[in-house]
Amino acid sequence: MDNLHELVTILALPMLACVILTGIHCYLGIHVLMRKVIFVDLALAQVAALGAAVGAIAGIGVDSLSNYGFALIFTLVGAALFALGKFKDNRIPQEAVIGIVYAVSSAIALLVLAKSAVERDEIESMLTGRLLFVDAHEIIKTVIIYSAVALVHIVFAKGFFALSRDHAGGIASKAWDFVFYATFGVVVTSSVKMAGVLLVFSYLIVPAACAMLFLRKVWSRLLLGWGLGLLGSLLGLIISAWWDLPVGPSIVGIFGLLFLLCTLIFAGVMRTHSINS
Q1: Cβ-count burial 44-61 (b if 16+ within 10 Å, e if not)
Q2: Which DSSP string corresponds to 205-240?
Q3: Separation between Cα atoms, residue 181 and residue 40, nearest integer Å
Q4: Does the structural domain 2-276 have CATH classification 1.10.3470.10?
């Protein structure tokens, strides 16, 4: 009983953080899959890391509010590039622009960090997150930031989903694209610091992809995605604590298994439907 109580105490705040991450990222993941810009979060996360690295080389502490500001400014610049880099005639696929931004920002970040006095563990923290050691203050701050983003998306939900479905061009759509990618960037900047790039990508894509296999309506996809995200988070945290494994890779591994299970179920359903028809 003492061991169970200790386990619950250790995992309470990380699980709460996972609930918050699941809520916002599953919703954004549906947009990302509809827009077919699968790696946009990796690119924005790398741009944010570049901003944090620039802040670090300027002598600003990695965990300071000013460093977060540096990361956010760079992320907003990345959002502008993605909004402007969507060509109406699809002359250049937007994924190409995303890939270029990712590669260039990664290279520049490495060059900046090569001249920085930042310690190795601080750099690793920027890239991998520290979900197991999240505290109540960070959770409260994250809830406030995500709530502001959620409010924007609730108010303008119709416009955002119309743009995600139609992929329209023009000046007006680029402005709305910038608002979308800017709010997306705000979320990613906060999430990566907490959970790391790999886990944030998994939260964004896997639950939404599983839900979109089976369902068409947005709310149905959200509910199933949220359920799968929470299930994967809980199982990953338990496995991590039980076998003393890293938290992020444990949750990502469970997400991988859930996705495999969902694809097998979907394939079985489609095969049965084909035979019956």
Answers
A1: bbbbbbbbbbbbbeeebe
A2: HHHHHHHHHH--SHHHHHHHHHHHHHHHHHHHHHHH
A3: 9
A4: yes
Using CA atoms, how far apart are residues 262 and 264, in angstroms rounded to an integer? 5
Q: Which amino acid is at 161?
A: F
Which range, of 85-89, 145-149, 214-218, averages the lowest pLDDT? 85-89
**pTM as predicted:** 0.87
Give the integer Cα–Cα distance in Å for 161 and 181: 13
pLDDT of residue 121 exceeding 60: no
Question: Under 8 Å CB-to-CB from 154, ≥6 apart: which residues?
Answer: none
Cβ partners under 8 Å of residue 141, min gap 6: 190
Cβ–Cβ under 8 Å, residues 200 and 48: no
